[in-house]
Automatic annotation (TrEMBL):
The lineage of its organism: Bacteria, Pseudomonadati, Bacteroidota, Flavobacteriia, Flavobacteriales. Keywords: Methyltransferase, Transferase. It comes from Cloacibacterium rupense. This is 23S rRNA (Guanosine(2251)-2'-O)-methyltransferase RlmB. The keyword DNA-binding does not apply. NCBIfam families: rRNA_methyl_3 (TIGR00186). Signal peptide: none annotated. Residues 43-117 form the RNA 2-O ribose methyltransferase substrate binding domain. The keyword Transferase applies. Gene3D superfamilies: 3.30.1330.30, 3.40.1280.10. Residues 1-39 are annotated as: Disordered.
Amino acid sequence: MGEFNKKYNSGEKRNFAPKNFDRKPRFDNRNSENEPRNEKEDFIFGLRPVMEAIEAGKTIDKIFVQGGLQGDIYADLKKLLKKHNIRPNTVPIEKLNRFTRKNHQGVVAFISEISFYKIEDLLPQIFEEGKVPFLLILDRLTDVRNFGAIARTAECVGIDAIVIPDKGAAPINSDAIKTSAGALYNVKICKENNLAHVVDFLQQSGVTVFAATEKAEKMIYDSDFSEPCAIVMGNEETGISKEVMHHADEKIKLPITGKTQSLNVSVACGAILYEAVRQKLVGKL
C-alpha cells in the first residue's frame, strides 16, 4: 500500500529601492513559449522585487535562493526572511534558471493565493469554538493533483485544518486550487517546519494522532475517531517519515483484498476521512 502512505508580522515599511527604481515586483507566469513551465503559478524574481513583495504582505509559498549568494542586499533579504519566519530553499543556479532565464539575481519566490496559519495558534481557537478538532497532516505529499483532491475531500468532511511541511511538499498553485474545486480557499492550511514537533504538540493538547500505513495491524474500522484526532497521510512513494511514524499514537490501515496492493493516496485518504465522519455522526445519534 505504498501510495496509501504516501499572520504575518506586518513590520514597519522599509524602502529598499533607490531613486528611479521601479518598485513594482516582477511577476512571471511562464506563459512565454521560451520559458520553462513546471508549474502554473505566479512567481517573482530579483532581490529587491522579492523584498518588496514580502513587505507588501504577499504570502510566500516557497522561496529559492542560489547557494553562496552574498552582498548587502542579500543580507537585507535574509533579515527580512527571518523577520517573517520564511525559510528559504538553497539551490544551485541551474534550478533557478529552469524557473526563468531572465535576471533573477539568485532569488525566485513563488506567491501563494491562500494564507497560511500556525497550528499552535489555530488549535486553541478550534477548542474555544466548542468543536472537536478534526485535523489532517500530509507528510511530504508531492503530487499537486493528489493534494488538491485531498483538500477537496477534507473540506467536504469538515476538516478544521490541513498541516503540511514547509519543505518537500506540493506547491499550492493554480493546479492544486483547480483540482480542489476551490476548496483550498475554504480550508485552513498550516505550514510547519517540523511535523514531528506538530504531532507532539497535538498529543499534549489532547489530540490522538493516527498514522496511515500498510504496515499497521489495526484496521481503520477498529479505531476511535470520535474524539479529537489528526490523521497522517504520507508521501506517495516513501510513505510517512520514520520520525513522524514513531511519534504517532496509532498505526492504521485499509483492507486490501485484491491483487493490486496499493491505493492512490487521495483515494485512501478519502476512505479514512469518511470512516471518521461516519463514527462522528453515529456518536451524535
